């Protein structure tokens, strides 16, 4: 029996989760939400995390009904992510590991998403679409690496959505993406937007600058509603994501798709991916907001895999890094 | 006009007679006959997951861009299939069947498997670099450069390698070094992920490109920048 506690706080969500042999015992989380029109900055985000982390830690232990002695390993997000929030969380993880006398494990955030997705959905060897505010990658496992087959060459799809939300002052509560999704359901008019797939990669900064510019003109002249813009943006962005996923599947001969990351909560994206999969006779796997959105349990799960395959992070190696490629990690726990 | 109407009406019947050789993510490819010639028919079928307007606009644009880019290449003396007919209602392109050819992908794979004379592959990548330089100097961005999208016509010796570029569906016209750099980046990623341990071979390809293109230095500079973007970008969430 192996019990791992995972600490995650690379962006505006701070979550701590406990996993025991594939069972999620607790997974509390808090989100730092900024007023409409504003994004979250590293310093303030770190301040938010500092103010709640110990409360969340206590919640995690209480909900799981465990004490420090029951924990076998302390996992934390090594990266990628925002510097200040990552440091804040790492400090607590390091301290707790030393206080409790438990080994530490630095986990790659992207791999946390993938391993949680695999655990919850039980998919065997899927093509993974990892889409969030900070990342957009199409990943497939091969020879001990999670290889990146396609990705954004500039900003992440979630970042595009979040920044668009700021332009038309959509609320960030519970998340800008969620609110765009609700508004999109009421949109009817399709506004043509740039569609930029480059081979297996995508680009979003062009669409963003186009819509930032066009939004004001279109809305002030009454040519469309904010709901129409949300609708059009989703239809375009998601079609691009489904396309690069399909290309990767065709390239690898894969029959399974797994969507992970915060943007993976979006039901329209899941629906579109489902249609594509059905046409190809492939299976679609997705999780709900508990596990799509950044959470501590996903770090615990990846940590569990790593720990059981014999990995440990020495204190001197327990730094954090803002840039950490998914394919840098040797996946020692899979053949 | 009556003639083209009757041809348009029977495009589906051409497809029925033809033999489907590939179903890709984007299109179905058939081999058939048209006006007495052996042709490849590329049919872009509707993607149901897309909003119908997104789908129609995108499919039409890709068909048009493909045909325009092929024509532009051919005018500049770069090998690409001859386009015989395009139907915009069914989004079908009828083009020359490049017979007796093998994809560069298959060729490299079999050459590596049989450990044939590496000199042979070097001459091949030199030629690839040259043909891409020519294409970029014409401001044609292929958009989906992979070794599966290059055909090697058999029966040509090392002195006279004949390469044909295909699959211009994502192509467009641009003079920007950024776009050319990204085009090479797409090839680099596809090349290295499909053919393991070919870093030196690809470097040679780029050297050949640099030597053959009049505008290469800005493009290679952009390629270096794009390569770093994946690593330097702040990844949050």
Automatic annotation (TrEMBL), chain A:
Any Pfam family matching the protein: TsaD
Gene3D superfamilies on file: 3.30.420.40
Alphabetical list of InterPro entries matching this protein: ATPase_NBD, Gcp-like_dom, KAE1/TsaD, Kae1_archaea_euk, Peptidase_M22_CS
Binding positions (substrate): 130-134, 162, 177, 181, 266
Catalytic activity, EC: 2.3.1.234
GO cellular component, one term: nucleus
GO biological process: tRNA threonylcarbamoyladenosine modification
Reaction(s) the record says it catalyses: L-threonylcarbamoyladenylate + adenosine(37) in tRNA = N(6)-L-threonylcarbamoyladenosine(37) in tRNA + AMP + H(+)
Name the UniProt record assigns to this protein: N(6)-L-threonylcarbamoyladenine synthase
Ligand binding (a divalent metal cation): 109, 113, 130, 294
Main EC class the enzyme belongs to: transferase
Cofactor note: Binds 1 divalent metal cation per subunit.
Compartment(s): Cytoplasm; Nucleus
Similarity annotation: Belongs to the KAE1 / TsaD family.
Keywords: Acyltransferase, Cytoplasm, Metal-binding, Nucleus, Transferase, tRNA processing
Cofactors required: a divalent metal cation
Keyword set includes Iron-sulfur: no
Signal peptide segment: none
Sample GO molecular function, one term: metal ion binding
Protein's organism: Cirrhinus molitorella
From TrEMBL, chain B:
EC number(s) reported in the record: 2.7.11.1
GO MF terms, alphabetically ordered: ATP binding; hydrolase activity; protein serine/threonine kinase activity
Record Pfam families: Kdo
InterPro entries to which the protein is assigned, alphabetical: Bud32, Kinase-like_dom_sf, Prot_kinase_dom, Tyr_kinase_AS
PROSITE patterns registered for this protein in UniProt: PROTEIN_KINASE_DOM, PROTEIN_KINASE_TYR
Enzyme type, top EC level: transferase
GO terms for cellular component: cytosol; EKC/KEOPS complex; nucleus
Keywords, in A-Z order: ATP-binding, Hydrolase, Kinase, Nucleotide-binding, Nucleus, Phosphoprotein, Serine/threonine-protein kinase, Transferase, tRNA processing
Locations listed in the record: Nucleus
Database matches in SUPFAM superfamilies: Protein kinase-like (PK-like)
GO biological process entries: tRNA processing; tRNA threonylcarbamoyladenosine metabolic process
Family per similarity comment: Belongs to the protein kinase superfamily. BUD32 family.
Subunit organization: Component of the EKC/KEOPS complex composed of at least GON7, TP53RK, TPRKB, OSGEP and LAGE3; the whole complex dimerizes.
Protein name: non-specific serine/threonine protein kinase
